[in-house]
Amino acid sequence: MRKRSGSSSATSRPPAGQERGEASSNVESTNQSYAPRLVTAKRSGSAWLLFFGLMMYSSWAVYQYQFQKLPAPLTAEQAGKRGFSEVEAMKHVKALTELGPHPVGSDALDLALQYVLAAAEKIKKMAHWEVDVQLDFFHAKSGANRLVSDLFMGKTLVYSDLNHIILRILPKYASEAEENAILISSHIDTVFSTEGAGDCSSCVAVMLELARGISQWAHGFKNAIIFLFNTGEEEGLNGAHSFITQHPWRTTICMAIDLEAMGIGGKSGIFQAGPHPWAIESFASAAKYPSGLIISQDLFSSGLIKSSTDFKVYKEVAGLSGLDFAYVDNTAIYHTKNDKLELLKSGSLQHLGENLLAFLLQIAPSSRLSETKEMGAEETKGHETAVFFDILGTYMIVYKQRFATMIQNSVMLQSSLIWMTSLLMGGSAGVISFGLSCLSAVLMWLFSIGLAVLVAFILPQIAASPVPYVANPLLSIGLFAAPALLGALIGQHLGFVILQRYLSFVYSKRKDLAPDFQADLVKLEAERWLFKAGFVQWLFLLIIGSYYKLGSSYLALVWLVPPAFAYGLLEATLTPVRLPRPLKLATLLIGLAVPILVSAGKFIRLAETMIGIVVRYDRNPGSTPEWMGNVVVSMVIAATVCLTLVYILSYVHLSGFHFL
């Protein structure tokens, strides 16, 4: 602690962003009445490791709670006539998977259609007496499907002789309900290599059990519910296209809900929504276990994920708004023979079924449904889509893009003003120090990605499999996360050394401080500049995300604002006589609590999904280099390391100090 001569009062801490003592002018203005006595005591390495371990443990705990905690399955007795029972739904999954693979044109698909038809007829017989259940076995004529984006961009897919089962549920005594309908869609067909427990027998089973429950509720609805069990999805989304262009009920549909799987089981979350925001807003307020990642929507829109779903047809061809759900656990087995019933986690169907039931019970009685189709086009033109994300799978936050833009512009403006003011007060030394701190961030990225990619190139040469971590994704921590972390440390430390040398030159002009004292101050100030380089990194990403109107830009806000607030509260100072001091671990604790809570699980989920997708590179030997998939995964993991550990790594490079 540093005291004034003749005074026992402590110096007060001023607001964030106006810190002094980081430029030579600040040091030169130090009042001679200050007589600090320096005690060098290294920051406890065990304390830093403890905090790092706490951060890793907290991140993993958030992931487990957010994505792995599933509701208990209910029996038919527990769910009641109006509820959703996973036990009953699993019977449908079992029956469909026992048929084996059932691609388009196979006898097994005909048997699957007959099974679904029989289940639908049973639902019709058991429906509430005031509910009308209409069943249609629809044979689609030949047609041509041409999409303008995503996986099938520029391709024309010709189809014929597709069969679909369509179930429409509506109140008997409300004729206007026929004019407005909500579509719930999934596909019965599978690829030729798998029985399709995840893709998409699990979705078909959820729809059948959901239809049974809805048939007991629909007498109070103002809108119809259409369940489409289509075929031809695996051939290029042809089933959805044939229905939405040929069936007479297509003109009544105001909203489309698509159920998909890119894996098997787990939580089925929303990965695409809109363009009209009403569907996602209603889901957020109604769902018992809301789950959704707008970052998935951004990745799909960018074309980085080479895949597509029926939702693309409903949105692009029919101009509908709605929601797209997907199971993504065990992505590595997607479209493989291992897509089997025994891998379907208990609680997976209950999670999706209860969410959809609550959602439909909220919007089906609403008179607003008819507005969404007409307003959807206007909203798309105005980019008035919604930003959505869940917190711990318990709450979902939804706000419109216009509000997101306003908040982001405000943060960017205030950050720019604070930085400009700070640099003007710091003079040329402050500007150069700022530039060198940015250089440290660049070096951190280069070395982190470089080492991780180097391992990715070497791995196929020494391992029996090009992707040995697919069976156990945790192996990727040792294979890629460890070298990425080491590279980040090396790169940032190199930047620290360069910055330290420059600051030593600046402080060398001070004749009133002992050389040892100057050296200690240089290290302290360099540490602070490295910490603040994290602000610059996330501010840059916020600017990029705002420019392209990416919904996932909220992640940049989360990783910029709380750490900056904590730094301003505990570290920053306005007085020119305040010398730099070691950063407090409390700054990390306060600054990283919110980012970890909001986004740690999502980063882990993203890396896990990317690891599963890499299997596609390995399935077609010769189509891509063996190292390609590893390079993609290594870069994703290295980027995650640099983005999330930039603040905590700044604490590693020097010993701590206290003033007495």
Automatic annotation (TrEMBL):
InterPro entries: Fxna-like_M28_dom, M28_fam, Peptidase_M28. The chain crosses the membrane at residues 47-65, 417-436, 443-463, 475-499, 586-607, 627-652. Residues 1-12 have a biased composition (Polar residues). GO terms for biological process: proteolysis. It is a multi-pass membrane protein. Its main location: endoplasmic reticulum. Residues 172-359 form the Peptidase M28 domain. Pfam families: Peptidase_M28 (PF04389). GO terms for molecular function: metal ion binding; metalloexopeptidase activity. It is found in: Endoplasmic reticulum membrane; Vacuole membrane. Its cofactor is Zn(2+). Residues 1-30 are annotated as: Disordered. The keyword Membrane applies. GO terms for cellular component: endoplasmic reticulum membrane; vacuolar membrane. It comes from the Eukaryota. May be involved in vacuolar sorting and osmoregulation. Belongs to the peptidase M28 family. This is Vacuolar membrane protease. It comes from Rhizophora mucronata (Asiatic mangrove).
